[in-house]
Amino acid sequence: MTEKIPRAAIAVYLLLALALAVQVLVPDAQRQAAADAGAFLGVLVLLAILFTAGLVFQKKDARAVTDIVTVIAVILVLWEILLGKLSLLDPLLFPGPAQVFQVFVSDWQLMLYGAVGSLGIMATGYILALALAIPLGLYIGWRRRLYDVAYPIAKAVSPIPPTVYLPYAIVLLPTFAASSVFLIFIGAFWPILVGTIYGVFAVDHRIINSARTLGLSDHQMVRRILLPGAMPSIFSGAMISLIMAFISITVAEMIAATSGLGWYIEYNHQFANYDKVIAGMILIALVVIGVMFIFDRIQRHCLRWQQAE
Amino acid sequence: MDDSGTLLSRIAQLLHYKSIFPQLQSPNYIRAICPELPFREVTILATITLDNLSMQYGNNGSRYTALSNVNLTISEGNFISLIGPSGCGKSTIIDIVSGLKTPTTGSVLIDKEPVSGPGTDRGTVFQDYSLFPWMTAFENICFAIEHTGGSHTKTEIEKQAEEYLNLVGLKKFRNAYPNTLSGGMRQRVSIARMFSMNPKVFLMDEPFGALDSLNRIYMQDLLLNLWTEGERHKTVLFVTHDVDEALLLSDKIAVMTPSPGKIKEVIDVPFSRPRCRKSLGATAEYLTLKSHLLSVLYCEMLGEIEQQAQNFRGLA
Fold first, then answer.
1. pLDDT tens for residues B6-64?
2. Cα separation of A136 and A196, whole Å?
3. pLDDT given for residue A154 in this prediction
4. pLDDT by residue (tens digit) across A6-31?
5. Are B134 and A211 in contact (CB < 8 Å)?
6. Which residues partner with B276 through β-bridges?
7. What is the pLDDT, as a whole number, of residue A3?
8. To the nearest whole angstrom, how far is the Cα of A302 from the nearest Cα of chain B?
9. Which option is the CATH number for A108-307: 3.40.50.720, 3.30.200.20, 2.60.120.10, 1.10.3720.10?
10. Structural domain includes residue B267
11. Which chain A residues have any C-beta within 8 angstroms of a chain B C-beta?
């Protein structure tokens, strides 16, 4: 690196070093004492490494990276000093970072199984919804008569929160996984369907006319013209669906499951293990960030023809 | 980042024009760009007949007549321009011939066969929006060739698409999406696509209407050269509102008048081909034809304006 390291970046390193030093040098408050502070120290070091990598590999967005890491570092330092060391709030409800991050070490197997299980159920329901809603939406948007029937129904049914189906789903479907898949499917289906229908309408009729002059069959028209043309709107529907799916799965697990991310939080809540509750929240946040990142990459790839301008 | 991107493409464009404009004087410049023109063994030609076309919109209550009794024959290998003010139904004629619209009465015949819907025996270029934005320039052309119905292998299609891209000087922009191309470049791809489909007839609806004048000159010469050199004079129906454009390109010009849209006069353009923009514009014959065309085009409009002016005076 030939350029000068910006001042803001140095501040981030200093903040992280401060957190590290405080953790090592200052003893934890009595009722906040973690069995082992290694996990928190590890998180701080990892953050410093990720930040450096971000500065090196994301030169264009260096400022944004710096700002985000600054916010995270400030939160960590405040959390550590105010709760971990000074224990200003009820130590049971508000554990310090050393305790919370230690959970990731002691409970990693349970958390991993939970995350994999939740994601598996979510992916199944979500992909089912995509596979059904997109083709259906394309034909509904293309055929006026289908639209006149389907759109009022979709409009009426789509705002119903998917969790209201939960009692029936639990009674009628054999396993928790099956009813969760159903719930996620229902929640994800409508936004994708409506997005697809709008997407078809948004395709410029001049482009459709140009396609018609090539004498395309109905099938080719739908697959090669309407699908890519509707893609931007499909993606915005799919984004809403993804958020719905996250909410649905977490709520469903909190109510009825015996494993999974939602269940992990609810279960530990009943035992007043608030360090594990917070660790569960952080885990969910990390999973959401990961999934959104992948979603964003797929979207960028599929809509690369749009970005050019 | 965006700024530098557009700046780079601007520079690329400018360099491109610099490299092509000097050659425009020679009618053979396409050979200079692309020595191996993809000549077809068989060039299919066709006659277009517009037989008593009428087009009405709306219900019985509020009927609007867009076209009324339009008769026109475009014989094999002729380049005919439809010219007229906006609202005279020239685009409607293109839509009917391409099969996008069905006339209220009358019919369109292509080689005595009535048109019943869209098809790849007609190649169409619109003002803009001919290309699909989610396909690259190259993919757009391949997609069109695929749908012409001939039995081509994939490599044949790709080879052809590449040849036609070269032909319009867009070899380097093979993998560019239409959004990243300038309006002129997009129209060049559209024209390459139309030629590559090898249709019976070409239909062009104000293809250069959205371009700046420099680009338009370039595109007119490109089209003219491609048409005279490359494809042995396919039958063309060309819509424009530009008198000079019509005179430069056409064998015949059909002048249309609005409300209801009808053909007022068909004028022969007697200039020999290949035509040169410079020498053509200087001849007395050209100027006479041009002023005649303008007077036919605008006499009705002038009448209307005078009428309005009188009404205005009457009010005051």
1. 555 555 554 454 444 444 434 444 444 444 445 454 566 788 999 989 998 877 667 78
2. 9
3. 86
4. 888 888 999 999 988 888 888 877 77
5. no
6. none
7. 58
8. 9
9. 1.10.3720.10
10. yes
11. 60, 204, 206-207, 209-216, 220, 224-225, 228-229, 231, 304-306, 308-309
